[in-house]
Amino acid sequence: MRGFVSGAAVVAIGGLALILCTGCAGTGYLADRARDAGDVFTATGGVGMGASVKCAFLNLGAISFADKAGLRAGEFYTDPEDGTTFAGQSDLLLMGETVFRTPETRRRGTDIHDIKFLGVSEVPTGGRSMGQMTQFEIAGALGVGLRLGVNPGELVDFFLGWAYVDVFGDDMGEAPSGEAER
Ligand SMILES: [Ca+2]
After folding, report:
1. What are the boundaries of each domain within the chain?
2. Which of 98, 89, 103 is nearest to 47 (CA)?
3. What is the number of alpha carbons within 13 Å of residue 1 lying toward its C-beta?
4. Ligand 1 mean position to 157 CA, how many Å?
């Protein structure tokens, strides 16, 4: 556990520097490392009511929550409320659904669409991120609220990414400023 915490700390510091530098990263390689670093952490603010806990593919919660801004799926975002971004969660005990879908996640194939049945996440297919199966997160809101998470699977993806191993298949090989459509 201590190893994971110190590993996560290294990624947090190095990754933040990389993310802040994404705009100046001259190669797609570095931009992918920055996005992979961002994937490890979740911190969003929003509005809603209730609480939930997610331990990898196991879920429990009673919450209705809309994520309005923060770091999620490797990007800093603010919901533009123009119909291009879907970010929220609706859980009732062992059933529910969490969604995070933006133009950027569509490009990377990292949409979060976590469908939970009897507390267990459905195996994601079709452009949904496998990373949602290794996410640990809590969300809580009383009018306004927070979602905080960390993802050991994405930490592995980040480290192996330096050796060109793309565990979650989310590398784009291009700089974000390229805005190339797939
Ligand atoms: Ca990757």
Report:
1. 2-178
2. 89
3. 0
4. 5
Task: Find the length of the chain.
Answer: 182
Alpha carbon distance, N-terminus to C-terminus of the chain: 38
> Who contacts 23 (Cβ-Cβ below 8 Å, separation ≥6)?
176, 177
pTM of the predicted protein model: 0.80
Could you tell me the distance, in angstroms and rounded to a whole number, from the CA of residue 138 to the centre of ligand 1? 23
Q: Name 99's Cβ contacts closer than 8 Å, sequence gap at least 6.
A: 86, 87, 88, 89, 111, 112, 113, 114
Q: How confident is the model at residue 128 (pLDDT cuts 50, 70, 90)?
A: confident
- As a whole number of angstroms, the distance between CA 182 and CA 179 comes to 9
* pLDDT mean across residues, the chain: 85
- Gap from CA of 10 to ligand 1 centroid (Å): 17
Check: CB of residue 62 under 8 Å from CB of residue 50: yes
30 CA to centre of ligand 1 in angstroms: 11
Q: What separation in Å is there between the alpha carbon of 3 and the centre of ligand 1?
A: 21
Distance 36 CA to ligand 1 centre (A): 5
| Neighbouring-strand partners of residue 57 | none
